[in-house]
Task: structure prediction
Amino acid sequence: MKKLSIIFCFLSLLFFGCHNQRTRLVLYAGFTQGGTFHIKFYSGADSTKIEHDIDSLLTVISSTASVFDSNSIISKVNVNQDVVLNEHFIKLFNKSVEVSKASNGSFDFTVGPLVRAWGFWRKRRMDLTQKQVDSLKAFVGYKTVSLKGGKVIKQHPESMLDFNAIAQGYSVDVISEYLMSHNCNDFVVEVGGEVRSHGFKNKTENWLVGIEKPAPDANSNEVIQTKIALGNKALATSGNYRKFFIKDGKKYSHSIDPATGFPVQHSMLSVSVLADDCFTADGYGTVFMVLGLERSKEFIKAHPGLDAYFIYSDSLGNYKTEYTKGFESIIVK
Result:
């Protein structure tokens, strides 16, 4: 599931960072997983090695989880080639199963064939009949795949895995944990719009990030809806308003409900999920876009540790917002 951008509101260029001394600010950015990444941290020495290590981490994650790379581990799994699974693949697989179980299948990392068939994978829109959807659903279901002896076991050889809904959040966590392991405890990391921060800027100020205001179309400029003082948390945003098609006056979103096999149709435009780690926030963003507003709020009540900021449209097409208790103290008024 393609993620919306989270807009960064860096209001100062001074950090308190690595090795507990005021040193050189490092602004590091680049491209990965079909999008961009932006990282800010302070380094007490030459940051060349840290930047090189970050590149290496992002490269190995991409070569593990990219469905656009025919040589990636997941692509080889999807065409039933014999391939050695690495630790990143196993972590992505296990987390996908965890979120799938917790959401009763609203998150399903085998839904890729339906996403592709509906035309959201390479932006080639298709119209599917109920019969076509049913034929594809036969190969969709997280319970039909498992790990055994370091290999993926499929009940149906046609089944395909897709970690796209959590790979960017996972990348954020891997980089964040790498920085902390090198005594860089004041930083902000963003990959593909998913973000995690730790520590402070200017010694006492929380990092600020922005949640994007819904745009009328995919080509519109990004505008901040609200600012968040993130603290030692992660934020991941998912949404439908930039990725959809309209047929016979009806909007079809790029969020596929695994239960029906059809794009969801409800009033929620985006959801930003707050959690301790970005891996978790990213996965449940997908869940909530499938469940919709009311069911998502009920889910959060039953799952402590998750909070969400919802943007939806009312019956007149006006934008509305709601958020759960965890956002009350971090929204910048």
Notes: Residues 21 and 44 are 7 Å apart (CA to CA). The radius of gyration is 20 Å.
